[in-house]
Amino acid sequence: MPIIVGNNTADAELFLSVSSAGTSVVHTLDELRRALAEAPEEHAVVLGPGVDLEAAAALADNLRVTRPAVSVILMRRRVDSSVLAEALKSGMRDVVEERDLTGLGEAIKRAHQVYRAVTAPGDRADDAPNGRLVTVFSPKGGVGKTTVAANLCVALAARHLRVCLVDLDLGFGDVAITLQLVPARTIADAVTLESDLDFAVLEPLLTSHRSGFSTLVAPAQPDGMEPIRGPQVSRILAVLKRSFDYVVVDTSPAFDEPALQAFDETDELLLVTTLDVPTLKNVKIACETLDLLGFPKSRRHLVLNRADDKVGLSPDKVETTLDMRIAQAIPTSTEVAKATNAGDPITASHPRHPVSRAVNRLADTVMGVRSASATPVDVHSAAEVRSRPTGARRAAPKRGLLRRAGK
Ligand SMILES: Nc1ncnc2c1ncn2[C@@H]1O[C@H](COP(=O)(O)OP(=O)(O)O)[C@@H](O)[C@H]1O
Ligand SMILES: [Mg+2]
């Protein structure tokens, strides 16, 4: 049960009213440390508005290493960007405004989910060599695949995870341009590499983005590129999965060879749709193709981009047509393209923007931490800065359902 550090009675009573029975209140950080030592199964610590920010950050920094299953939730009278930056740096999971008791309740709920994910038996087997691979796919172009992939990378990297974005849209890949990267090398350079590919060979081909993740981009001029064969894609992804916590794959709008190979390695598939009939029809057909390929439904997550576009189709209709729950809705905003044009995904440049909040909740889903709700347009008031421990949850062993010949 959460332990709350509150140094005045009124605050403490307020917190208790949103928290569950069994919550305890202490008055100082020393008392908190003693209480934690006696509570090996603790999942959340709430630091009230009276707790000094520097001391709170030092505590969070320490707990991140010594007790990764414990989420630190910071309450502040006002949440501004300097508080958020400090919280992000020290690894706090949530920052909530003092008056936002709904936000606090939700943060505590999420802390419990993180605890369960982190401590789930079998999830952190030492011999599990792999990071997780997230493929962002849609059978339509222009629906936001690259936008979702790039922003998701920002959100995951902000949680101190090692992240690599791979552009498998080899014909028209625009990860590099979306992130305004000037890559020295591209995936085309990997094509000529021999089969004994390892990370030492691949690393020089990666380009870093200033938000803290790596990319393996597609060549700007695909024409001269030697066609990349399926087994090479597989090998590249397998090597990256061993070296990163998350490999996020952006795809072309087709079931082409690179996409099919990526599906083989995919732990979570983000299927992007928008509220228009042609896209919906194509996504429906794509779902049927995924059924034929044997891609498990449990690993598919529907992302409704531009969820608030008023085009006559409702999110409900999308869910019933596809017989799938919307895992995350992302609103429309002109700020998305503006941020891209400035070279920073919106999640990096405007972390409190509704689009960024939605992306952060998508990151929760990807990490196996279910959102409390998936309303069409995300309006949750809890702060969006949430750090998760490295490798919060590992994938179950791959079943190899899509293993294709020739690998
Ligand atoms: N939620 C959104 N709100 C506003 N514009 C968006 C949103 N998502 C994507 N866009 C814009 O739509 C265009 C296509 O997005 P992109 O990610 O390149 O699609 P895809 O990779 O599926 O072809 C880009 O100009 C992008 O900035
Ligand atoms: Mg794209």
From TrEMBL:
Organism: uncultured Nocardioidaceae bacterium
Domain of life the protein comes from: Bacteria
InterPro entries: CobQ/CobB/MinD/ParA_Nub-bd_dom, P-loop_NTPase, ParA/MinD_ATPase
Domain CobQ/CobB/MinD/ParA nucleotide binding: 134-346
Start and end residues of each stretch annotated as Disordered: 371-407
Gene Ontology CC annotation, any one: cytoplasmic side of plasma membrane
One GO MF term: ATP hydrolysis activity
One Pfam family this sequence matches: CbiA
Protein name from the UniProt record: Type II/IV secretion system ATPase TadZ/CpaE, associated with Flp pilus assembly
Biased composition (Basic residues): 395-407
GO biological process: negative regulation of cell division
SUPFAM superfamilies listed in its UniProt record: P-loop containing nucleoside triphosphate hydrolases
